[in-house]
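Sequence, structure tokens reproduced for reference:
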Amino acid sequence: MDLTYSPENEAFRQEARDWLDSHVPAEPLASFDTPEGFEAHRQWEHTLNEGGWAMVPWPKEYGGRGANLLEWLIFEEEYYRAGAPGRVNQNGIFLLGPTIMEYGSPEQKARFLPSMASSEEVWAQGWSEPNAGSDMANIQATAIADGDDYVINGQKTWASRGAYAHWLFGMFRTDPESSRHKGLTFVLVPLDTPGITVRPIEKINGKKAFAEVFFDDARVPMENRLGEEGQGWSVAMATAGFERGLMLRSPARFQNTARKLVDLYRSAVASGAFVDSTLRDTVARCFMDAEAYALNTYQTVSRLMAGDKIGAEASLNKIFWSELDIRMHEAALSLLDARAELKPNAPAAGDVDDWLDGYIFSLAGPIYAGTNEIQRNIIAERILGLPRK
């Protein structure tokens, strides 16, 4: 693998850096899990879209820049370097968008992708149900054909961005006599449809990051089906591959955290505070693992650009980045010692920054995008070829 950047790559990086340096908000935006923060992040996404940076690898006619995946990685590096806001529509642009590119009709691409890139329409992820978490094959919510519509009944829960989103994508059982992976269909659902009730779920901090969504004879046009009826599992696995293996968690996110961790370690040592001798090795390992994840992602991108597809190895990536994220934040809290419990605006906070919030969020990493226990089962069966019990 050639690890050098071409002059064109470097010119792209400089263009991205210059634009971000002149457009990134000077002050952090409010959390997008609040009404005001949600709208502020949508406005930022609109600014990105106007500059042509909303989703750089998408074709221009769909709101992208026509860049390749290597340039997307470069842009992500510059995005995190600039301290730009988090992407409120990440379920759409990073997960559903690439899936529509692969499975959508020309009409669906033209209808959904431009409004997704601009965040005119924000998407919620509708996988989980009360009895179907990581085991998506146990989905029970139904979408029964009636004329030109599907009539949807059932419930989704833990719908990410569901509290404020405009649309939801998810799988529904279109063959009520089917079981497990068969008879499932991928449907795009407007959340203002009559018969749909959205009930926000508050996190421990009181912010509304998720929602329960109830369907009571909600009618959705069949033209909102993505892929063929009954083939929803294949479509969803493509989406899950993007979530676990590439788009949702770019390596720049973890490289940025690793650099901050190194700076925190150096600051702690320079201050003369007691630092457990083992933390030096832990910090170094975290930094190396973040770089290793980046190199692995570059390798994946090289394969995709050569015509390959993401497969079961996405589960390896998901375990790696989710557990690395926890280790980095645990190391940071150890370095901060008692101050780790302080909020960034506390009088004695110093360089506490947002490490505590980051740690709490990192604990969700082994759960969302399919629990790591499930990912280990996938690795055992589909990569190692081990028999099922």
About this structure: The beta strands are 123-126, 142-146, 149-156, 167-173, 184-190, 196-202, 208-221, 225-226. The first helix runs from residue 7 to 23. Residues 41 and 87 are 7 Å apart (CA to CA). The radius of gyration is 21 Å.
